[in-house]
Amino acid sequence: MFLPDARRQKQLAQFIQKLGLSAAAKIQWAWLDRALVHPTFSAEFNYEELEFVGDAVVKLAAAEFLLKTYPQAQAGELSAIRSILVSDRSLAQIAAAYGLERYLLMGNSAAADPTGQESRLAAALEAVLAALYLSTHDLSLIHPWLDTHFQPLAEFVRSDPARQNYKGALQEWTSAHYKLLPEYRIQEIGHTHGDVQRFRAEVWLQGRSIGVGTGASKKAAAQAAAQIAFMKLREETLETERAEAGCQ
Question: For 225-236, how does the pLDDT look when each residue is reduced to its tens digit (9 = 90+)?
Answer without folding.
Answer: 998 888 888 878
